Every structure is written in structure tokens, then in C-alpha cells.
Amino acid sequence: MGSDDTAESPTAESPESLLLRVARQDREAYRALYDLCAAKLFGVALRICRERGLAEEAFQEAFIGIWRSAGDFDPARGSALAWMAGVTRNRALDLLRRRGRGDRPMEDGALEALLNEAEGLRGDQADLNALLQCLERLEETPRRAVILAYCEGLTREELATRFEAPANTIKTWLRRALAALRSCLEE
Predict the structure, then answer these.
(1) Shortest CA distance to 59 belongs to which of 98, 20, 103, 89?
(2) Model confidence over 7-37: pLDDT tens digits?
(3) Which CATH number fits domain 12-101: 1.20.81.30, 1.10.1740.10, 1.10.287.110, 3.30.70.100?
């Protein structure tokens, strides 16, 4: 087994720079990115899948997807961790759909789980506090819809059933809530 001190050094590259190198098919950068981000991204998959075996499968598919689509990452549109968390979330949801596991009940700690995930992805207490404040500004129903969609992994159709509202209404709630969060976080 070879020695690769790059990922463990205190001057390790940022996830953004590593992901940009991965886009150029740099295997060393891919390994360093994996070492740096695997635990956080596995947590995203586990939170959605709720079973370790399924989460491991979703996580593995996500990292393959990250290798294949790293060129789609645009640092001007957000952080590398957020982009990779989105890839992981989508793979986990796809896996659940393929397995026919749709309805996952909301846990009492869904907001805390979302905040913990945000803390793990952003790592900055000021950003975490800003997210919490912005979430509190949302009306109750759209806030719950955002939490269920992004923390619990529910689809628009599942949210429509849960809230007894048309899927297009759910889509509008989510779009408006995310726009409000984005605007609030930019302040």
C-alpha cells in the first residue's frame, strides 16, 4: 500500500480544488476528495436510506457519479460539498425508488438532522446560525416541506400525499422556500 500524505496534511486542498482536478480525471485528487468528504457524504446517504447496506450502495453509486460528472461542477454556483451532497442525495433517492421504498415517516428531530447535515457540509457555526435563522423566517408548511424533501428525502409526490396538496403546489412551495432561503443567506 502506497503512502499518500496529501489528504491528511494540514495544508490539504479544498474540496473545490480537488473536484476541479477530478473533472480532469486526476485519480490522486479523487482519492484525496474521497478521504476528505466520504464520512459527510455517507451521512447524507444514511440519513435518507436509513439502512446501512442501502446507504453504502447509494454512497458507492454517488462517488462513481461524482467521478463521471465532476465536470458539471461549477464553483460559481455553490460549494463542492453541497454539489456532492446533491449527487449523493439523488443517488440515495433513486436507489430507494428502485427498491420500492417510498414512504419514510418524519422523525421528530428532522430539523436538527438538517442542521447537523448543514454543519457537516459547511463546517462554519456562523453559516449554521444563518441557516437556522433563515429557516425560522419561512412559514411553517413550506419549512416542513423543505425539511422533509432535503433531510428526509421525500419526493414531491410523497409530499403531496403528506400535505394533501397537488404536486404542482408542492413544487411551488419548495421553489419559493428555496429562493427565500437563498436570498436570506445572501443578506
Answers:
(1) 89
(2) 444 346 899 999 999 999 999 999 999 999 9
(3) 1.10.1740.10
